[in-house]
């Protein structure tokens, strides 16, 4: 079981995706991440890409986001997200999309204040994901992108007007934080 670490659903338990292909973000890492991006919880729009159980997007909802798109290519993951949101009695301001992350990024018309990207560590396509976000203008002015990766991963420093402004390691996990240059 996973736990919501802050906000209106604080300490509530949610389900993991019952598969070895999904690696949940630990409670400690989730808390550290959301403390760093704490200024983004006043109605902002979030994208939880490679959503898995939906734990990151659910944490955003619990802390006051205005809307979350959950995207995962696994039907089991999407069912788990739906079950978790029902468990928390969340009925609006989100959408669950059973799509490949790249297909979603190439076709969505939405823009986001916060884009959370937590792909399987073996994927290593962070630069490609960043390139799509930049060229399709999916990040709103003043928004941020957060990549979660294995701590040995070398995340891109910059792409066009998007720059990495912070990198933090917690255990085996690396978070890279990106925003638009001024």
Shape: globular
CATH architecture label name:
3-Layer(aba) Sandwich
Can you count the beta strands?
10
Kindly, what is the distance between the CA atoms of the first and last residues, rounded to a whole number of angstroms?
Answer: 41 Å
- Low confidence ranges: none
In this structure, how is the largest beta sheet organized?
8 strands, mixed
Which descriptors apply to this entry?
182 residues, alpha/beta, Rossmann fold, eight-stranded mixed β-sheet, two-stranded antiparallel sheet, 5 helices, 27% helix
Structure description:
- By secondary structure, this protein is of the alpha/beta class.
- It has one domain (2-180): Rossmann fold (3-Layer(aba) Sandwich), CATH 3.40.50.150.
- Helix content is 27%, strand content 31%.
- The chain has five helices and ten strands.
Q: Nutshell version of this structure?
A:
By secondary structure, this protein is an alpha/beta fold. 27% of the residues lie in helices and 31% in strands.
Helix-strand blueprint:
Blueprint: E1 2-3, E2 13-14, H1 27-36, E3 45-49, H2 55-63, E4 67-72, H3 75-87, E5 94-98, H4 101-107, E6 112-117, H5 126-135, E7 139-150, E8 158-159, E9 162-170, E10 173-180
Parallel strand pairs: 3-4, 3-6, 4-5, 6-7
Antiparallel strand pairs: 1-2, 7-10, 8-9, 9-10
């Amino acid at each position: 079981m996973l736990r919501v670490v802050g906000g209106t659903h604080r300490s509530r338990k949610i389900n993991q995706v019952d598969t070895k292909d999904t690696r949940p973000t630990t409670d400690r890492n989730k808390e550290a991440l959301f403390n760093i991006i704490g200024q983004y919880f006043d109605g902002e729009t979030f994208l939880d890409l490679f959503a898995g159980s939906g734990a990151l997007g659910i944490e955003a909802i619990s802390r006051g986001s205005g809307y979350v798109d959950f995207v995962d290519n696994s039907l089991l993951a999407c069912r788990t997200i739906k079950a978790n949101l029902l468990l928390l009695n969340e009925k609006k301001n989100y959408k669950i999309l059973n799509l490949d992350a790249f297909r979603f990024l190439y076709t969505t018309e939405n823009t986001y204040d916060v884009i959370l990207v937590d792909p399987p560590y073996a994927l290593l396509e962070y630069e490609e994901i960043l390139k799509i976000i930049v060229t399709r203008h999916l990040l709103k002015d003043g928004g941020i992108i957060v990549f979660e990766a294995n701590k040995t991963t070398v995340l891109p420093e910059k792409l066009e007007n998007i720059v990495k402004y912070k990198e933090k390691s917690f255990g085996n996990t690396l978070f890279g934080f990106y925003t638009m240059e001024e």
